[in-house]
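Q: Fold this one first, please.
A: Sequence and structure below.
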Amino acid sequence: MDYTAKNFDAVDFGGEVDYSNVQWFQEPPPRPEPQPAVQPYVPTEDVIRQNEAFEFALKAAPNVLYGRFKQYGQLGVLAWCSEFGEMIDSLKDLGFSGNMFVATRVQALKTCEDILKLKLEIKMQIILMYLSSQVARLRRFLDGGERQWNDYPVPEFPLDYRTYTS
């Protein structure tokens, strides 16, 4: 079986094609029509209020987290992470509908940095990992994976098992 994909049915007798009667470039190519002017985006009052509410909530989020930590300890952080996850879902809905303002996005990224700068003494590493995953989830949505973030807290798992056994 021949796998060269040559077509043996066609016979080429050689010789040149006569192009002397062909008139080249007699008509100019058709010009493309100009694109219609795009109408500027004018958000509704509801969208403006929703973005302002998210900005307010994002500005308050680090203070609320710190207050929950002072009031309830590590379990307060766990409960706050659940509420923060709900806010992330709502922010994602806002963004996917095309109604998120740049100011809301910038505030959300700043909030993520502020949350990770808080000095919370969290001993339960699973809560620390859950908090970091919520922040990472929001950052991935807002940034699209364009930037590498290195400000996450490092979990302090015991690495040498022999120090905890007899």
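Q: Good. Now the second chain.
A: Here it is, same layout.
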Amino acid sequence: MSQNNVARNRLSSTTVHIMALDGTLNVNSLFMFAAFLGIALNPADPNSSLVSSAACAASSAVAKHFVEFHVYSFTSFLFSSLIASCLKLAITTDAKTGRIHRNNNIGGNVNLRLLQGGILASAGGSISGCAFLTAALVDLVEIKLGTLACWGWHTAAALIPMLILVPSALVIYIGLLFYAFNR
């Protein structure tokens, strides 16, 4: 029998929403862990810097921004994860009995506009978390390898790929998010 004659299993929209929310929760957990590790890092330790010239050393303001951006990032990812968890719970809870169904095809009636708004809020939290985490990593590179004003080879080699790939990934993520809502 050819593959064209085989009926393909189609996923219900409930299953797709739950899978998307699971993916958001998993990725946010990894990013929250990275942000938490960044907060625990002591950027002011002079032994951890690789900068040889005092003129290229980052100021204490950069170290403060480093910590601030990590806190903002952690907060954004936590916001996104809480929204995604609530949406997943709302989808899988039966409105009549209050029971949580493990079968993703059965669930409560959720207002589609509310679901879309929640997914957009969760995505917004993830996007802002990525932006803050990227800003924190820029500060980390400045602390470890020298400021952007000195524009050393190692600083450029660390920042250029990150500043190309992260925004590109965010543009793709946003594009696919809007494509999913307009289908």
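Q: Anything worth noting on the second one?
A: The two ends are 32 Å apart (CA to CA).
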